[in-house]
Write a structure and sequence with these properties.
CATH topology of the largest domain: Rossmann fold
CATH class of the largest domain: Alpha Beta
Strand order of the largest sheet: 2-1-11-10-12-13-14-15-16
GO molecular function: ATP binding; long-chain fatty acid-CoA ligase activity
Protein name: AMP-dependent synthetase/ligase
Structural class: alpha/beta
GO cellular component, one term: membrane
Largest sheet: 9 strands, mixed
Keywords: ATP-binding, Nucleotide-binding
Radius of gyration: 25 Å
Pfam families: AMP-binding, AMP-binding_C_3
CATH architecture of the largest domain: 3-Layer(aba) Sandwich
């Protein structure tokens, strides 16, 4: 649906929503005060009061138009209120992942020149105190929660969020005219935020997204996918990531959708039945885990349970293909016996799953479609604000990331000679355009202004013709965009064949035995893999077999366990071309995590880190080749 208020900047979005809901008792955000409590609403009257108090405080502290303000916080109401206040005074939001170590926080604060730094928990405050003296532009740190370590509050530059609100409220009247003047000065081409790419290599770069970049993307997304003020979203992807920022925040509030904040990423399965969302925006990892839990449960059940499950999936497939009549009745039975239980886990009201950030394995996409819980895959980059393409409800194509959204143009450039193979704009539909694979390019109002303080990196990303080079390989398939992999992830084997590891890894992720997998084999005669087992599944098997082990290290060394993976590798490799088949593997005892550095905060694998960390295992695989 169209957005519920007119706006050309994020500043106007707040102002017009605030006016629209003045006195309407409209709840916008919901939070849980503690794990045992129910969700509590935050109404627009409070949002408006808090945003103006924060804005007054920022002005009192000398924040000028274009100044940067940092936020280091999990998804919570304070994050949104601070962001709206920053936009109100013409500032620039610099938000950081809570998983970043102090050194990386320090780099981003130094590079951006942030003046004020908002932090959430005692853990994040500790980071801020550690790096404060090294950040010359930083004047003050404002903490949401009272830390357990009392000495952190003894620093003169640390203030509590509630105290800041009170002080801001006291200065509001004297700064009201200044705030009004600032709101009128904000232009669509002004930078609204710096989003530092988490980066699988090198130092993070600050993508400058303007108000126009984000607003154009919000409006295009709401034209492409329908949601309205009857919907509610459970927010858990990091708000400092452009996907959640645009789709899970600005697009939601601009359409009147209520936003429920998950307590954490780890409590999503607990919070879904509590919040009963109608919309879920996620990365593929959530769907992979849900799928693997279901498959695990079925495989551990009786033969009868397996037969019912397989029949239900097949019935769902027929129904999703448009078959009706007897199939309609069978689908109702399949829902009652199998799929309704899955829907209950999500709160029972989800009508839209939206997936982005990485490719969704086709088998998982198909399963959810059979269950009547279609996943709308989308695609984009931080640098494109972020959405470039997305599937539409009722027009999904498994294995594709959808059609190009309004206002955006996507091109496919040959990897061999650099020629443009094809291009489609959001206004070109209906179209059956298909193309060979090549690098995905993008033009449109959503393309970033550039990288902060990094003109060289900007020129590498955006060419003289205005095309942004994504570094992703893809193709058009009857008007739908399909992603192959990242160019830099491409493996060239000893025979000179180009192999993209992403689709191979997606295939193996559907195994109940495999939690995470990274394909390796650069300049080698065959492909191999580093595998993180699903330790819950493997551990249960080992105990049932009476095998002795005391930790994961001992578990993965058991011959019986290795035999399982040998069989699994052989089975899945049958579906691959000869040069893509996995010929060998090594199991590792620890999950790849953000904290240990193997994956980014958006759960993408850092292949270089894996290669370095497990180089000895990779070397061992190929030593006799």
């Amino acid at each position: 649906m169209p957005t519920i208020v007119p706006f050309e900047t994020l500043t106007e979005l707040f102002l017009n929503l605030s006016r629209k809901y003045d006195g309407a008792e409209k709840a916008q955000f919901y939070f849980k005060p503690n794990p045992d409590s129910e969700y509590q609403p935050i109404y627009w009257e409070q949002v408006t009061d808090d945003v103006y108090s924060i804005a007054a405080y920022l002005i009192e502290q000398g924040v000028e138009k274009g100044d940067r303000v940092g936020i280091l916080s999990e998804n919570r109401y304070e994050w949104a209120a601070i962001d709206l206040a920053i936009q109100l005074v013409g500032g620039i939001n610099v938000s950081l992942y809570t998983t970043l170590p102090p050194a990386q926080c320090e780099y981003i604060l130094q590079d951006s020149g942030a003046k004020i730094f908002f932090v959430s928990t005692g853990l994040q405050l500790k980071k801020a105190v550690e790096i404060f003296d090294n950040c010359d532009d930083l004047k003050e740190v404002i903490a949401f929660d009272v830390p357990k370590l009392e000495h952190l509050m003894e620093e003169s530059y640390v203030k509590m969020f509630d105290d800041m609100l009170i002080e801001g409220g006291k200065h509001l009247e004297e700064h009201r005219e200044t705030i009004k003047k600032r709101t009128m000065e904000v232009e669509p081409e002004d930078v609204a935020t710096l989003i530092y790419t988490s980066g699988t290599t090198g130092k993070p770069k600050g993508a400058m997204l303007t108000h126009h970049n984000i607003v154009s993307n919000v409006k295009a997304a709401t034209q492409h996918i329908y949601w309205d003020d009857n919907d509610r979203l459970l927010s858990f992807l990091p708000l400092c990531h452009s996907f959640e920022r645009t789709a899970g925040y600005y697009a939601m509030i601009s359409s009147g959708v209520e936003v429920y904040y998950a307590e954490s990423v780890d409590t999503v399965s607990k919070n879904m039945p509590e919040a009963k969302p109608t919309i879920m925006i996620s990365v593929p990892r959530l769907f992979e885990k849900m799928y693997n839990l279901i498959v695990k449960s079925v495989e551990e059940g009786s033969d009868t349970k397996k037969k019912i499950f397989n029949w239900a999936v097949e019935t769902g497939r027929k129904y999703s293909e448009g078959k009706r009549g007897l199939v309609t009745l069978q689908k109702k039975i399949a829902d009652k016996l199998v799929f309704d239980k899955l829907k209950e886990r999500t709160g029972g009201h989800v009508r839209l799953f939206v997936s982005g950030g990485a490719a969704l394995p086709p088998e998982i996409d198909t399963f959810f479609q059979c269950a009547g819980m279609n996943i709308l895959q989308g695609y984009g980059l931080t640098e494109t604000s972020p959405v470039m393409a997305a599937n539409k409800p009722g027009q999904e194509k498994v294995g594709a990331v959808g059609t190009i959204i309004p206002g955006v143009t996507v091109g496919i450039q040959s990897l061999q000679d650099g020629k443009l193979l094809a291009q489609i704009s959001g206004e070109d539909y209906p179209t059956n355009t298909s193309s060979e694979a090549g690098e995905i390019l993008c033009k449109g109002p959503n393309v970033m202004k550039g990288y902060w303080n990094n003109e060289e990196a900007t020129k590498e990303m955006i060419d003289n013709d205005g095309w942004l080079h994504t570094g992703d390989v893809g193709k058009f398939d009857e008007g739908f965009l399909k992603i192959t992999d990242r160019i830099k992830h491409m493996i060239v084997n000893a025979g000179g064949k180009n192999i993209y590891p992403g689709p191979i890894e997606d295939l193996f992720k559907t195994s109940k035995w495999i939690d995470q997998i990274v394909v390796v084999g650069e300049a080698q005669n065959f492909m191999a893999a580093i595998i993180v087992p699903d330790f819950e599944v493997v551990g249960k098997f080992a105990k049932e077999q009476g095998l002795k082990f005391s930790n994961n290290e001992e578990l993965i060394e058991l011959d019986e366990v290795k035999d399982i993976y040998k069989k699994e590798i052989r089975s899945f490799s049958k579906e691959l071309a000869s040069h893509e088949k996995i010929r060998d593997f090594r199991l590792v005892p620890n999950e790849f995590t953000v904290e240990t550095g193997e994956i980014t905060p958006t759960l993408k694998v850092k292949r270089r880190v894996i290669s370095d960390k497990y180089g000895h295992l990779i070397e061992d695989i190929f030593k006799d080749d």
